[in-house]
Amino acid sequence: MKAVVTSKTGDPSVMHVQEVPVPEVKSGWVLIQVKAFGLNRSELMTRQGDSPDVKFPRILGIECVGVVERDPSGTYAKGQKVMALMGGMGRQFDGAYAEYCLVPSEIVFPFKSDLPWSVLGAVPEMFQTVSGSLKQALEIKSGETLLIRGGTSSIGMLACQLAKTMGLTVIATTRKEAKLNALLQNGADHALIDNGSVSTELKKIYPDGINKVLELVGTRTLKDSLQCIGYKGMVCMTGILAGEWTLSDFEPMGDIPPLGRLTVYMGSAKNISPEALQEFIDDIAQEKIHLNIDKVFSLDQLVKAHEYMESDQGQGKVVVEI
């Protein structure tokens, strides 16, 4: 089969298209013929060497959609549409950057859809990350105000749409003035330029602060995000778009406002409800939800796809279709 193998840590040039054996099926695992997958920042970080437990060479890719090639347990029929994500994909074992992928059965989820594979490829990580961050971590409710830090990312754009359908007021941020209109067109009630500090501008609109913050930029802006919340407000750190894992000079008793709450969301296949997944896919088909897909690449173009994502030119999810 054709696969993109990352030989060692480094820039995108360390990835190479190669012919490798199709994985041998084993008990408790499912062999999937990969049709499409989304790119994720975590894969860039793994390639760059920020995932110390990953051994190279490795086929990266933490999510995919496709059809079952073989399931020894008989749970899934050959040709059945499924998605798989997380659970060590592309890290502990070879992942989705290939024509076939062997994954543990517990991270496989069936679905029914006639949507194009290029659309379905954007679903797995976007669905579990946005749904988990907003509903499980932030416990959002109608009537609340939500700040999305990193609003032009694919997760940020989808989070805005879901929050609006649930009756929230949304403030979204971007570093680039040219992207402000995209945030408003996506449904945000307010769009702010993020130069590392938005709390002062936000409190001109909401002097008492807001209810919830979805932090997608990461540690670089986390302390300022905490200054945006009001009484019993909550910040959930889900993303690390800035690429910084640690936070220096953090003083919990000073940086977290009184009665404020700070949590994190780190996605897992265990958080996924098959029924909720199917409902999400159906909502896309019925155009209740619009997935902001920026570009679609082929497997042979994966190096270019990584270069594009790393350049920060994108305004949505990058998908690879096989």
Describe this structure in words.
With 322 residues, the chain is α/β, with parallel strands linked by helices. The chain folds into two domains: 2-122 and 292-321, Quinone Oxidoreductase, Chain A, domain 1 (Alpha-Beta Complex); 125-264, Rossmann fold. The chain contains ten helices and 15 strands. Strands 3, 4, 5, 6, 7, 14 and 15 form a seven-stranded mixed sheet that branches. Strands 10-9-8-11-12-13 form a six-stranded parallel sheet, sandwiched between helices. Strands 1-2 form a two-stranded antiparallel sheet. Helix 7 (219-226) links the parallel strand 11 and strand 12.
| CA radius of gyration | 20 Å
Specify the overall morphology.
globular
What name does the CATH topology of the largest domain carry?
Quinone Oxidoreductase, Chain A, domain 1
Number of helices in the DSSP assignment = 10
- Quick one: CATH class of the largest domain? Alpha Beta
H and E string: EEEHEEEEHHEHEHEHEHEHEHEHE
Number of domains: 2
Percent strand equals 25-35%
Helix fraction bin: 25-40%
- Assign the CATH superfamily of the largest domain: Medium-chain alcohol dehydrogenases, catalytic domain
The second-level CATH architecture of the largest domain is: Alpha-Beta Complex
Structural class: alpha/beta
Number of strands: 15
Mean pLDDT over the full residue set? 94
Q: How far from one another are the termini?
A: 12 Å
Strand count, sense and closure of the main sheet?
Answer: 7 strands, mixed
Unreliable spans: none
